[in-house]
Each structure stands twice: as structure tokens, then as C-alpha cells.
Write a structure and sequence with these properties.
Length: 158
């Protein structure tokens, strides 16, 4: 059975004929895993392997100040996942649940999210620990994991 086959008890629906929005892939994620089955189910931001997030040069200025963050939220596009399955039975659990009750990459909009440790930034390449996706997975967005502290001149007077 391939990763794309539907399992007994799973349910697929017909996808809408048009999409409602477009996204820009802003870079690519590089990891040691070349197959879905080889990826961890969830990244390990302490003991996981070092991975690289390569942001396209166009967005270089958008990285300004990110090096102050110890942890960042990475959003990425699970480009190899089916989008039409609403009831699914993930291989690891064997439990049948609705898509929105799962963190499975198989979903109408295959957006994945991970909080990762930021090890360093060189140019537009981020070195991180804590990812769980295949090598070459498209990057959607990067955000600080915690809201930045307000600047001292915007603090209320004591
Ligand atoms: C369970 S998902 C979790 C993703 C993310 N941490 C989240 O919670 O949104 C991680 C799994 O997605 C699968 N996967 C990884 N890269 C993928 C890709 N590019 N396309 C489709 N599936 C992928 C692998 O089986 C991996 O173990």
C-alpha cells in the first residue's frame, strides 16, 4: 500500500473545483528524510537532527531581527499529501478519526506547523532543530514563537 492509498474505513470527498486563495512558497526546507515514512511523526527540538530552512533571497529583509528568537514557529506546505480525505486512519495509531481531530498532513489545506529551536542564521539560511518533513518541503511562513517584548518606550509608566 502506498502513502496515497485510501485505507479501509477512510472516507474521501470531492474537492471544490476552484481554490479561494493563492500562497507564495517563500523557500524550501532541507531535512535528512527523502521519504514520508522516514520522517518522525513530530519533530524533536532538543534531540532532532539539524535541518536547514532556505528562504528565497527576495525575502531576505524579512528576516531582520529574527536572530533574537530562541524558538520560531515554522509553517510549511505538505506538498505530497492528499487533500480529500475527511475520515482517516493514520498508520501509527490505527485509530479512525476526522481530519480536524488529527495533526496528519492529509487535510484540505496541507499546512503543517512546528515550533523549532533556532540554532543560527547565515544569510537567508536558518539552522534549526525540530522539523518532521521531507527534504524539499515548501516553506510558507516563519513567526516568532513568543510575541516580542514591547520596546521600553512603549511600556506604561509605573
Ligand atoms: C504528522 S505530520 C505533523 C506536521 C506538523 N508538525 C504539524 O503538527 O502540523 C508529520 C508527517 O507528515 C509527513 N510528511 C512529511 N513531509 C511531507 C510532505 N512534504 N508532504 C506530505 N507529507 C509529509 C510525514 O509522514 C511526517 O511524519
Amino acid at each position: 500500500m502506498s502513502d496515497d492509498d485510501i485505507r479501509p474505513g477512510e472516507v474521501a470527498v470531492t474537492l471544490p473545483s476552484v481554490t479561494d486563495a493563492a500562497v507564495y512558497f517563500i523557500g524550501r526546507i532541507h531535512t535528512p528524510w527523502t521519504e514520508r515514512g522516514a520522517c518522525p511523526r513530530t519533530g524533536d527540538k532538543v534531540d532532532g537532527p539539524e535541518c536547514r530552512i532556505v528562504v528565497d533571497r527576495r525575502w531576505a529583509q524579512a528576516l531582520t531581527g529574527l536572530d533574537q528568537q530562541a524558538e520560531i514557529l515554522v509553517l510549511y506546505w505538505m506538498n505530497r499529501a492528499r487533500r480529500d480525505i475527511v475520515i482517516q486512519t493514520p498508520r501509527h495509531s490505527g485509530k479512525t478519526l476526522g481530519t480536524f481531530a488529527l495533526r496528519s498532513p492529509v487535510r484540505p489545506n496541507p499546512i503543517a506547523a512546528s515550533v523549532v529551536t533556532l540554532l543560527g542564521i547565515e544569510g537567508t539560511t536558518l539552522r534549526v532543530r525540530g522539523l518532521d518533513c521531507m527534504d524539499g518541503t515548501p516553506l510558507l511562513d516563519i513567526k516568532p514563537h513568543r510575541r516580542p517584548e514591547p520596546a521600553s518606550d512603549t511600556q506604561p509608566a509605573p
